[in-house]
Amino acid sequence: MPRLPFSAAELGSVLAPLAQAKPLPPAAYRDSAVFELERRELFGRAWLAVARSDELEDPGAFVRAPITPEGVLVARGADLVLYAHFNVCRHRGALVCRAPHGRTEAFVCPYHAWRYELTGRLSSAPGAEGLEGFYAADHGLSSVSVAEWKGFVFVNLAADPPALADALAPIPEHLQRLHLAPLRIGRRVEHDVAANWKLLIENFQESHHFPSVHPTLERITPFARSSSFIADGAWLGGTMELVDEAETVSVDGQRHGRPLLGGTSESDRRKVYDYFCWPNLLLSAQPDYLLTYRIWPLGPDRSRVTADILFHPGAMLDGFDPRDVFEFWDVTNREDREICESQQIGVASEGFGGGRFATSEDGTHAFDRRMAHFYLEHLSA
User: Fold this and answer.
1) Could you tell me if 130 and 145 are in contact, meaning their C-beta atoms sit under 8 angstroms apart?
2) Across-strand partners of 276?
3) Which CATH architecture has domain 8-43+170-380?
4) Cα dihedral sign, 256-257-258-261
5) Could you tell me the pTM of the whole model?
6) Residues 6+ apart with CB under 8 A from 9
7) pLDDT band at 319 (very low <50, low <70, confident <90, very high)
8) What confidence tens digit (pLDDT) does each residue in 106-118 have?
């Protein structure tokens, strides 16, 4: 167990009420021992969103999720069941697959051509068949748990994880109503951010930075019209109200005929709902489309973001042109990336001793409290 570079007393100050609390100690964002603990004990045991179901609809479709350095292969079998395996050949440890996604009948190791079916079963082991005591059934890919929820595919590396439905419960009422499974990916963008993954989550949890960082977003969903909701389960989030003249969040604030997300009520038409699902999935439900961000820690000061924009399938017909949405979020996501990278440099400075929370940062405080509890569990252990 790595030694953590902060004390229980420092973490206790994070757990104080918002008006007295301090954020996580600066070392939490830059120390390699902290990162290793998070990688093994948090991301190695939680249900992690890795893909959308429509990426894996057809038999043979697969993705390689960057949960671990080698990645986890998630594939749809010929029986239409999802399977997930560590991307490591059981012969000599070579990576079985380097493609980020694709379609295949089987996985064949490029080193010695051991062949694995999509189920993980070893079907051919050149040079090993016939060896005394060698049984192919004992050398299949190491499998991990996989499950689906509302069109999202989740994986858990733990040996005996709780059911996904139990881990996600209770689901916020608005989110439960939305019909997310039929949505289709309109565009995906992946980028690396030179910042700790927790800074990205904290940034998502508050709108306090809108006036200074996001002038175009502030014009459509003003910080003054935002609110947070705090819960003890897997979910945190908040709402932002649209200005009176806007129909959605886009370059001109108009939907241009795009249908509302299924399950949207009359009162939902004027709001944006943001959700953080512990520990790596961010959702932002606009009236007519859904933003999703999957956050992957790559190092103490580096993260990868997989950003999707999903639409109602009824919108994606002839003449569908969502450039007003894409252009808006290209600018806004770049602004977030730049401010988080600036923050990462600052938290590594000797001149930064730790700050305080603004009264509007209750969502960020709630996330930091959960991280503080996680660290305290391992300090006591």
Assistant:
1) no
2) 236, 282
3) Alpha-Beta Complex (3.90)
4) positive
5) 0.95
6) none
7) confident
8) 999 999 999 999 9
